Amino acid sequence: xxxxxxxxxxxxxxxxxxxxxxxxxxxxxxxxxxxxxxxxxxxxxxxxxxxxxxxxxxxxxxxxxxxxxxxxxxxxxxxxxxxxxxxxxxxxxxxxxxxxxxxxxxxxxxxxxxxxxxxxxxxxxxxxxxxxxxxxxxxxxxxxxxxxxxxxxxxxxxxxxxxxxxxxxxxxxx
Length: 174
Fold this sequence. Notes:
This protein is of the alpha/beta class. Helices cover 29% and strands 17% of the residues. The chain has six helices and six strands; from the N terminus they run βααβαβαβαβαβ. Strands 2-1-3-4-5-6 form a six-stranded parallel β-sheet, with helices on both faces. Helix 5 links the parallel strand 4 and strand 5.
């Protein structure tokens, strides 16, 4: 059981301009900033210990401020291939501020070597490995790679995502 409080900043990377995920005209038409929220990150947020304070910055809708990083004990980030450039930028920002960063998601899982500069790499479905990461963090470890066994995670047991972290006005699809 994780007992110590921790400030976790979830940072969802920007999608590259040429990505399918950027359809700005539709967003403008309905008064939103971006098509869809970061469901993976807010699901991970729901798996974190209740004693942990969690905030979200979606770089597709909001700016990441120095104050956000100063508040954080750790940053969780990661995403898909069209987010890779910004994911690597986030890692660099965290290193400059001395904040440990954990990356996960499909791109880190399929190309872990690209993310070697991250303090932590959580590869595969979080439902299959997040508990091992949390135990390591509680022991004071500040780096490592945690790989879930393929096709073993029971995602049907995933908790309801932390929708309370979202500003619903930012998204077309909520």
